[in-house]
Amino acid sequence: MKKSLFIIVCWFITRPVLALTTFLCIDSSDYMRNGDYSPNRIMAVQEACSLLCEALIQRNPENVIGLLTFGGNACSVRETLTEDIDRISASLASIAVGGESHFANGVRIAMLALSHAKNNRSQKQVVIFVGSPVTDSPDKLRQLATALRKHNVGVSIISLGCPSNTSILKEFTEQVRKNAYFYVVPEHGSVIDLLFSTALMGDGPGSGSFGVHTGVSATGGAFNFGTEADDPQLAMAILASLEEEQRRQAAAAANSDNNNQQTTTTTQQADIPITNNQDAAPEDDLELALLLSMEEALRAEQQAAEESNKPTSSDAAP
Q: Most CB atoms within 10 A, among 31, 163, 257, 266?
């Protein structure tokens, strides 16, 4: 029994991690200007996407990421599949907001782009950030969900600020069935905090096995690794990194306090006037000068006493 358990644990630790091909779909419609998420919806999504891209590339150097926006007059592919994080960051920063949302068309274009990935053995997923009402018909969404399931493409949807989308997108993920996730960022919440509680940062698509994972996350607590889809090794690594960063900051603060104290002491010492060593007399000469000064004082007192004892002219005999 112990031997079998040991073999299973060793396999889990050393199991190969398949490469992951991810396509980010970002809503860039006029609704993304709203400031209900700090600083606004589009900037909150940009920060979350930047963090997600860095995590995916660090997890496996063979992971590749693409980027498109489905707002405006039409969908726009901002970046083809690449592992260059700088290109993706530059494309994220250059997203312009305006126009209407084209949810279904954007997801379909991302699915087609994933079909042209160089690594055919990689796991494929589409990560969608939605911040405007989904106006596509139920039939169109049903056909899209069927195509995603047929092509074995995972879906992760993060919804911001549109309560009307909850039932529509939840039904859509249930229709995809396989490897489908749906999350709702709470009102005035943090997209990054929610991101850390999703399967995207753990044992979700691209980190292990496919499976049926549907549901709504209505809370976005920071660093909540309690979901069953999370990777315990990744959670422990992130927690250890956070503890190490806290220790480093505490040590840096202590060193800063010590440096401030040393600077204050040095400043106080600098305020004390320093005499010239050439003008200062040696210790022996100083003692000799003090003795001579005392002797002169004694002689002066003796002379004064003698003068006071001499008879005056009024005391002389007639």
A: 31
Domain tally, the chain: 1
Written as six digits, the tokens of 257 are 């306090």
> Is 279 within a domain?
no
Residue 220 is part of a domain; what is its CATH number? 3.40.50.410
Count CA atoms closer than 13 A to 299's CA, side-chain side: 6
125: left (phi over 0), alpha (psi -120 to 50) or beta: beta
Contacts of 79 (CB under 8 A, 6+ apart): 65, 66, 67, 68, 87, 88, 91
56 φ, ψ to 5°? -65, -40
In sequence order, what are the residues at sequence separation of 6 or more whose Cβ sits closer than 8 angstroms to the Cβ of residue 196? 222, 223, 224, 225
Phi, psi of 257 (to 5 degrees): -65, -45
CA distance 108 to 123: 17
Residue 311 within any structural domain of the chain: no
Q: Cα(first)–Cα(last) distance of the chain, in Å?
A: 139
Which tokens in the block code for residue 81? 């599949």
Q: Does 291 reside within a domain? A: no
Nearest to 22 by CA among 194, 201, 178: 201
CA distance 14 to 26: 35
Query: For residues 25 and 107, is the Cβ–Cβ distance under 8 A?
Result: yes
Q: Is 233 inside any structural domain?
A: yes
Angle at CA 190, nearest 5°, toward 163 and 128?
60
Residues 80, 83, 84, 90, CA torsion sign:
positive
User: For the segment 86-140, what is each residue's pLDDT rounded down to a tens digit?
Assistant: 999 999 999 999 999 999 999 999 999 999 998 888 999 999 999 999 999 999 9
pLDDT tens column, 184-215: 999 889 999 999 888 787 644 433 333 333 33
CB count within 10 Å of CB 220 equals: 21
Closest to 67 (Cα-Cα) out of 90, 44, 51: 90
